[in-house]
Design brief:
Elements lengths: L1 H25 L33 H11 L8 H10 L3 H15 L3 E4 L7 H8 L2 H11 L1 H4 L1 E8 L5 E5 L5 E2 L4 E2 L9 E2 L10 E5 L7 H26 L3 E5 L4 H13 L5 E5 L15 H19 L12 H36 L8 E4 L5 H11 L7 H8 L24
Parallel strand pairs: 8-9
Antiparallel strand pairs: 1-10, 2-3, 2-7, 4-5, 5-6
Length: 421
């Protein structure tokens, strides 16, 4: 009986030790080997501890504190800075400028080419219809604004590729550390894990803080100006009301309070008959000082993101200004496309080859953007002098051309070869 109990105790302890080892390895789970595309999932993104972020008023002091923490020589952390990025990203103008630039880049056509340079139309169309493609390109484009993106690839139960952005607050690209909880010092050096380059992809410059860092002061000052302007509107639009009464008589004070509440929603207060209240004489203004500050902040954010002020200056705006601004925006979009092209060929394509999604030897390339308006003008100018393929016109401009129209000579002179003899 004693031997049986001892054996049972030994088996129970062995099972407990096995469970402890299993739980300890869960955080460092590895995908199974092979390139069939149905390997296991790394578990880095799901291990990130969620944090409740209290929304408080932000100022330049918070910005400087976040910058100092992000640029520390030892154990820098960027969670304060990225929390501030998320806070200013709700600005309407900043959001619209970023989305305009990103959507123009995401709408550009691309192709996958074989080693011979031939475009694989079937594989290109197949990948174009995948959700993970646009999500991955968005994460790559976001490196312009956030400075860095760490993306984790995995497969769903249906075998579809999925992309998930590891929260930037938990990543320090300068030292290559991933913090499951950014309030603690426990970390993983993600550049040293076996999944790096296959399941875990890194984009951006580790030293770059992104364009949003330059937009922080403009958003903060804009909010300050809007807050002051709204208070000015409240004072001038609905001035406060004053009631003088005998404050020593509770009945009269109660009646005065009830009367002031029933008269409307404007601010009110009650003072004693012997007291005197006066408004301070400040600088007389109708809010132009706040309006000018808001316009300045909007202009600076537009110049930062799109390189120009597009469609905002309705007073001094013109068609030529907007056209030149659109050309500047297109230059920035082409720069973004070049960046996406480089990351695909250097980082994404090798990972997709290892996962068995793309065959070896393929390259990614965006189709060169064409100015259709200029091309159409050149086509119409060349039409009287050269024969133009109407099939090309239909494919390029979408015009249903059935053939070449025969022109009739309506002149009275018959200038043939014998006329000059």
């Amino acid at each position: 009986m004693d031997q049986g109990q001892n054996l049972t105790t030994i088996i129970s302890m062995a099972n407990k030790n096995q469970r402890r080892r299993t739980q300890k390895k869960n955080f460092n789970a590895r995908p199974s080997k092979g390139n069939t595309g149905k390997a296991g999932k790394p578990n880095y993104a799901v291990k990130i501890a969620p944090k409740a972020i209290a929304r408080t008023r932000q100022d330049i002091k918070n910005w400087n504190r976040a910058l100092n923490m992000a640029k520390k020589a030892e154990d820098p952390k960027r969670h304060l800075l990225y929390n501030l990025y998320d806070e200013i990203a709700i600005d309407a103008l900043l959001t619209s400028q970023i989305e305009n630039r990103k959507l123009k880049a995401l709408s550009q056509a691309f192709s996958l080419k074989k080693a011979s340079g031939e475009v694989d139309k079937e594989l290109t169309e197949l990948i174009k219809n995948k959700i993970w493609l646009s999500e991955l390109n968005k994460h790559i484009l976001d490196t312009k604004y956030y400075g860095h993106s760490l993306v984790e690839l995995s497969f769903s139960e249906e075998g579809e590729l999925c992309t998930e952005l590891i929260p930037r607050q938990n990543v320090d690209p300068t030292t290559g550390k991933l913090y499951p909880d950014y309030s603690e010092d426990k970390h993983i050096k993600y550049r040293e894990v076996p999944e790096y380059g296959t399941w875990v992809l890194e984009f951006g410059d580790p030293q770059n803080l992104g364009l949003l860092n330059n937009a922080i002061p403009h958003v903060l000052f804009k909010r300050f100006a809007q807050s002051c302007w709204s208070e000015l509107c409240e004072i001038y639009g609905i001035p406060p009301r004053v009631l003088k009464t005998n404050t020593q008589d509770p009945t009269m004070v109660s009646r005065g309070e009830r009367m002031m509440r029933d008269m409307g929603a404007a601010a009110w207060f009650i003072i004693d008959e012997q007291e005197k209240f006066e408004f301070a004489q400040g600088v007389s203004t109708n809010g132009d000082v706040y309006k000018n500050l808001i316009n300045l902040c909007n202009s600076e954010m537009s110049m930062l993101i799109t390189g120009a002020i597009i469609g905002q200056d309705t007073k001094n705006g013109s068609r030529s200004k907007d056209q030149s601004a659109q050309e500047m925006l297109q230059t920035l979009v082409e720069s973004d496309l070049t960046m996406v092209d480089q990351y695909w060929n250097s980082t994404v394509i090798p990972a997709l080859i290892k996962l068995g999604i793309v065959p070896d030897g393929y390259t990614f390339a965006y189709e060169k953007a064409e100015n259709l308006e200029q091309l159409w003008r050149m086509t119409t100018e060349a039409a009287p002098h050269f024969d133009i393929d109407y099939k090309w016109v239909k494919e390029k401009f979408g015009i249903e051309v059935t053939g070449v129209k025969q022109t009739q000579n309506t002149g009275n002179l018959n200038l043939n070869a014998d006329f000059f003899v």
